[in-house]
Design goal:
The chain is built from 10 helices and 17 strands. By secondary structure, the protein is of the alpha/beta class. Strands 1, 5, 6, 7, 8, 9, 16 and 17 form an 8-stranded mixed β-sheet that branches. Strands 12-11-10-13-14-15 form a 6-stranded parallel β-sheet, with helices on both faces. It has a 3-stranded mixed β-sheet with strand order 2-4-3, with no helix packed on it. The longest helix has 14 residues.
Length: 356
């Protein structure tokens, strides 16, 4: 169901979810034979896939509850953010880059409460509210419990409840690392952000504005109002204008689209300018021939950056766009929506009811 104002705070943008014509699929409840003999306290509800494929391979079933080892914490999951990487892993598209052991629990954006701490000292305490980006090579957080290494999580922003916080980690870290770690964006520079209303794009726009950059961003006709609300200095409607025909002298391009959009973006950079892509590896040879630079960003889990992002959120400088909130049992539908490519803002799975 679409997000309503009653479901989230004023710090969150709200937009009516688009009709997608997708049918609902009730997930089967299965029992894994590996759970035979386990007690109720050793089991949890989870969404897993046993083979690679489409959304239909996701099963809502019982799985063994994980136990934290040294340097790990066990999180009682309240909400799990949905990202394109989730369905790419499920479809087997990430196999050349990350090896997984099946069955696998997907979902690596988490918000919840520390339930248990592994052996040794920890900077977290039981009962603390945390959020973070988990290691995508391991089981994720489409489950009642999930394991996290300490470097992957930070204290949850105080101003967000768990559903909101679960929408933050991957998108915000991707925007942060693209603009600042790799892009080294400076005050007064001109930055072009493709997909300015998307999960990464809408946060990148706000982070760039916080830095004092001059922000240009692309979006469709129906999303132009959101670009203005985000504070974009020059909104561009890509359905009506070719951005490479009307702009130039750009210091930094953040590419969230890839393909032809990425290729045309090289031409709008000033000499020595940089294209940073989170969609696909750019053509470095072509960039060099044009006198510009290019880079690809693989988002890393960074507790320190999450802490800084949380401060910006609590200070009211960074707001979120949440498109859909679905129960964990509707993970298939969440993947269908994400794969459609027409969802503005984030999709979140509610795992456990929690008060804001």
């Amino acid at each position: 169901m679409p997000v309503t104002h009653a479901q989230a705070r004023n710090r969150v943008f709200h937009y009516q979810a688009i009709p997608v014509g997708l049918y609902r699929m009730k997930l089967e409840t299965r029992s894994d034979t590996k759970t035979t003999g386990a007690t109720d306290t050793q089991l949890m509800k989870a969404v897993r896939f046993h083979i690679y494929g489409g959304p239909e391979v996701l099963n809502y079933e019982e799985a063994r509850r994980p136990r934290p080892q040294t340097g790990e914490v066990l999180i009682r999951v309240y909400a799990a953010g949905v990202n394109p990487n989730d369905w790419k892993v499920r479809a087997g598209e990430m196999n050349p880059f990350v090896q997984h052991k099946l069955p696998l629990i997907p979902g690596w954006d988490v918000s919840g409460v520390v339930e248990e701490i592994g052996f040794g000292l920890s900077r977290f305490k039981k009962g603390e509210e945390v959020f973070g980006k988990l290691d995508p090579s391991r089981d994720g957080d489409y489950a009642e419990f999930a394991l996290a290494r300490e470097m992957e999580i930070a204290l949850k922003p105080r101003s967000l409840h768990h559903v909101q916080a679960a929408a933050v980690p991957t998108a915000a870290l991707t925007a942060w690392q693209s603009l600042f770690t790799v892009g080294r964006l400076q005050r007064g520079q001109r930055v072009l952000i493709h997909g300015g209303t998307g999960g990464v794009g809408h946060l990148a726009v706000q982070l760039a504005k916080c830095k004092g950059a001059h922000v240009l961003a692309t979006a469709s006709t129906t999303s132009q109002a959101m670009l203005s609300e985000l504070g974009v200095d020059q909104p561009i409607d890509y359905t009506k204008q070719r951005f490479d025909h009307i702009i130039g002298d750009i210091d930094l391009v953040l590419d969230t689209i890839g393909g032809e959009t990425q290729q045309r973006s090289l031409a709008v950079l000033k000499k020595g300018g940089l294209l940073v892509s989170v969609a696909q590896r750019p053509d470095n040879a072509k960039a060099k021939a044009l006198g510009v630079r290019s880079a690809f960003v693989w988002t890393e889990s960074r507790s320190d950056q999450l802490t800084e992002i949380g401060r910006l959120i609590d200070d009211g400088k960074l707001r979120l766009s949440i498109n859909r909130i679905l129960p964990l049992s509707e993970a298939r539908r969440a993947h269908q929506l994400s794969e459609s490519g027409h969802v503005h803002g984030k999709i979140v799975l509610r795992v456990k009811d929690a008060q804001p």
